[in-house]
Write a structure and sequence with these properties.
This protein is mainly alpha-helical. The chain is built from 17 helices and two strands.
């Protein structure tokens, strides 16, 4: 029995929400689990896309041509790479993220504005669950009687606290939306503000400087866009103060009263050091100088083993060294073009208090913060961050106000996109099924081989230089 359009939309939404929650809230969650959830969400997005035919184009002609050029260059670079299968896997990840963004855009266009409430409710619930997990872990740590407390040990659901910070960069701006809407009751507003304070407490205690940088840049830009942007910044600054008060109360006053030593305080992160990024940035730069046109191949920074990381923690250097400088310039041009188009809409509606306009501003802040953090961190590498970037981009695509009618969807272009999406998610599913039974053994072999720590890329052990195809 076939599903109606409404049943189809609800089914995809429920599946997507469950996968998002399982990806970060499950007790056993980590990088590899989140990658599997990302592939599952990509599969769901492709299936959903096969059942929908858009009436209007989602992107204009220059954007579509730019995306075709990026994928084409990626395929050529992959074919010439040292390990073509892993290179094609990276291209498939890029396309599957696009499939998620397209599915979100189509879903929002079909369901309309009521779906915006679902998005914000989903963000609030996820942040609430993670906050409860954090506070519960803190309560257990204080009750254990241990003489040393490490705030990093209170973070759960992510393999690295920086990955947690990336998720917070994408959700902190969205969590402030209920505080901006005029018809929200005082009790709801107070509850959301309390949650935002706790969310900032976690961001402060986690010490991810990329999150602080991304939110600072987003705050400055939004403050220049109009009164609603300044209100957004005011709420965020108030929540930062609340988070600092909570941090002081828990990790200074309470620990002092109990005689507990804080093992890794936030003051230890207030430095201007590169945290080991210098060598991997130089490696990426040398790779660019050696092969500027097509790069070494997607994912192939991980094919040159180094003791620091399997990616350079810098989006531009990563894309240029792996996909080539022309592809990186094309990606930058599309990002600038899309960002500028959204910025123009925000400026034109700077005084609007409609929910859709406020949501557009919060989504733009999340995207701007994440892209800023991507200049110093692996936002475009980590599975959970990739999924949330796709979600934010897809929602912005659906909310975009065109200057002129975008025109009807081209059947041949949509068919080509479907073929690319199906092939991509098929490759990803095959890679997951191939590697999943051996992931733990591969990690153990890697660490027993004299390596100090795992270096995430596709999997938590992401150094493909040590793998056999």
């Amino acid at each position: 029995m076939s599903l109606s359009p409404q049943q189809r939309d609800k089914t995809f939404l429920v599946i997507a929400a469950c996968l998002l929650a399982l990806g970060i809230c499950a007790p056993f969650s980590g990088h590899d689990w989140q990658r599997a959830m990302q592939v599952a969400m990509g599969l769901g997005a492709v299936v959903y896309g096969l059942t929908v035919v858009p009436v209007e184009r989602l992107v204009d002609r220059p954007t579509a041509l730019g995306l075709v050029l990026i994928v084409g260059l990626g395929l050529v670079s992959s074919a010439l790479a040292h390990q073509p299968l892993w290179a094609f896997t990276e291209v498939a990840l890029f396309i599957s993220c696009g499939a998620i963004a397209v599915a979100v855009a189509l879903l929002r266009r079909h369901a309309g504005e009521p779906l915006d409430r679902v998005l914000i409710l989903m963000v609030v619930l996820l942040c609430l669950i993670k906050s409860i997990q954090y506070l519960y872990a803190g309560a257990l740590a204080f009750a254990s009687g241990a003489r040393v407390l490490d705030p990093d040990a209170l973070l759960s659901g992510f393999s690295n606290k920086r990955f947690y910070g990336q998720f917070q960069t994408l959700t902190l701006p969205l969590l402030a939306l209920p505080l901006l809407m005029p018809k929200v009751s005082r009790s709801v507003r107070g509850a959301v503000f309390a949650l935002l304070c706790v969310w900032w407490l976690i961001a402060i205690s986690g010490g991810t400087r990329g999150t602080w940088l991304g939110m600072a840049v987003a705050g400055v830009v939004l403050a220049l866009l109009g009164p609603w942007g300044r209100r957004w910044l005011a709420w965020q600054l108030a929540a930062v103060c609340g988070g600092l008060l909570l941090y002081t109360a828990l990790f200074t006053l309470l620990t002092g009263a109990l005689g507990v030593e804080v093992g890794s305080g936030v003051s230890d992160r207030l430095t201007t050091s590169l945290s080991g990024r210098g060598p991997i940035w130089w490696q990426a730069w040398h790779m660019i100088a050696e092969r500027p046109w097509l790069g070494f191949g997607p994912m192939h920074f991980a094919d040159i083993a180094n003791p620091v990381a399997a990616h350079p923690h810098q989006a531009i250097l990563q894309w240029a060294s792996e996909w080539g400088v022309p592809s990186a310039l094309c990606v930058a041009a599309l990002a600038w073009r899309g960002g500028w188009a959204t910025l123009c809409v925000l400026r034109a509606r700077a005084c609007s208090t409609e929910r859709v306009d406020l949501l557009r501003g919060c989504l733009f802040a999340a995207l701007l913060g994440a892209l800023t953090q991507a200049m110093v961190d692996g936002v475009i590498v980590m599975p959970n961050s990739q999924v949330w970037l796709a979600l934010v981009v897809g929602w912005l695509m659906a909310l975009h106000v065109w200057r002129a009618a975008p025109g009807a969807s081209l059947p041949w272009a949509w068919a080509g996109w479907r073929v690319a999406a199906v092939l991509s998610v098929g490759l990803l599913v095959w890679v997951v099924m191939r590697d999943a039974p051996h992931i733990e053994q591969a990690q153990q072999d890697y660490l027993e081989g004299g390596n100090q720590h795992l270096q995430p890329r596709f999997w938590a052990q992401g150094v493909i230089a040590l793998r056999r195809q």
